[in-house]
Amino acid sequence: MAGAIAYISRDTDGQLWKKAFEAALGPVDFRTIDHLGDKADVEIVLAWKPPGGLIASFPNVKMIVSLGMGVDHLLADDRLPEGVPITRIMDDGLVGQMSEYALYWALRHHRDIDKYAASQRARQWKVEDFIDTIHRRIGVLGLGTIGQDTANKFAALGFPTAGWSRTQKTLPGIKTFHGADGLAQVLAQSDILINVLPLTRETRGIMDAKVFATLPKGAYFINMARGGHVNDEALLAALDSGHLSGAALDVFNTEPLPADHAYWNHPKVHVTPHIAGATNPRTASPGVIENIRNIRAGRPLINTIDPKSGY
Ligand code: NDP
Ligand code: OXD
Questions:
Q1: Which listed residue (88, 110, 137, 226) is catalytic?
Q2: What's the pLDDT at 1?
Q3: Is 69 in the pocket of ligand 1 (CB under 6 A)?
Q4: Which of 135, 151, 229, 278 is the most buried (most CB within 10 A)?
Q5: Whether pLDDT at 5 is above 80
Q6: Domain ranges of the chain
């Protein structure tokens, strides 16, 4: 049998991954975090938030797979073995879920559904002022796999849509900006701002008081990327001052969100428990299986990330 696959995660038991691998590759030596056996047997590591230093303790590991599309949880380990390629799952299903998450909260805000829900509770027949779709500007921070899908879907609904990336992009129907100057421009024209950046050295804490102040008054903020992007005090201050009209937050600086955190019962905040895009082994496994075959055959890998840039 080929080398072992180590499943390093405490979120699920990994059995769906094992099944998917066995269906495609035949019997696999599949080990879980509490039953790793001889670490020298491990050839491939699948990981979500691995304990620091654990992956470095596998002397023969050939490929590290992030069980999420984000890789910050892996790169947080400063003892990762050098030169071992890091890949991430890529899954159209997960990408679609992410866009749905942004669309759901944006449309709920755009169509004043929370106000109508409050009117219903008060038994009031009250019509809110309406902003036309062509005047509700959407900004998407991060124009990668998820950001592009999200931006395209908003544009297809008729929302004027802009996006921001590190390098210059040309995307039909989307106004694109990049670099530090581009950020201020995209913020200034975002009535609804969606964050889908990776968490890197450059983007940690990017959503600060200055960024919130640059958004138009009444803007709505959707964070489906990472909590580490957000200065929570700055966000709360922007909400409390009335500069921001609301926020939908899926990710937090500390997860699970502590029970006493101000977000939980803030009247302008919707909290979800990091579910914007869930990893589904059924749809995410084909790309990983392809890479297991690639690494064993000495072929180039797909879905690799660059540890230097952090994504
Ligand atoms: P990609 O790596 O495909 O794209 C990242 C985008 O961010 C690129 O457009 C990149 O620019 C841009 N970017 C990176 N650094 C900077 C910077 N310093 N300034 C401006 N733009 C920058 O990522 P994905 O779209 O696949 O995923 C994004 C993030 O979404 C993940 O890293 C993860 O944290 C989060 N996520 C959250 C989930 C959830 O359930 N809440 C589920 C899945 C993902 P360029 O194109 O120029 O390289
Ligand atoms: C991911 C996540 O990165 O679930 O895929 O956050």
A1: 226
A2: 76
A3: yes
A4: 151
A5: yes
A6: 4-91+279-297, 92-271
Q: Reply yes or no on whether the pLDDT at 283 is more than 80.
A: yes
Two tokens at 87? 């890949």
Based on the residue annotation, tell me whether 274 is a catalytic residue of this protein: yes
**In angstroms, rounded to a whole number, what is the distance separating the alpha carbons of residues 93 and 282?**
10
CA-to-CA distance for 42 and 262, rounded, in angstroms? 43
- Assess contact for 39 and 67: CB atoms under 8 A: no
| Ligand number with the minimum distance to the CA of 279 | 2
In the three-class reduction of DSSP (H, G, I as helix; E, B as strand; rest coil), residue 84 is classed as coil
Query: Active site includes 299?
Result: no
The pTM of the whole model exceeds 0.70: yes
Handedness of CA 208, 214, 218, 223 (dihedral sign): negative
For the chain, percent of residues with pLDDT exceeding 70:
100
**Cβ contacts of 184 within 8 Å, gap of 6 or more:** 214
Same fold, 4-91+279-297 and 92-271: yes
Q: Which of 274, 293, 296, 299 is catalytic?
A: 274
Average pLDDT of the chain, as a whole number: 98
Under CATH, to which class is 92-271 assigned?
alpha beta
DSSP 3-state helix, strand, coil percentages of the chain (rounded to 5)?
A: 35, 20, 45
**Mean pLDDT on 208-219:** 98
pLDDT for the residue numbered 269: 98
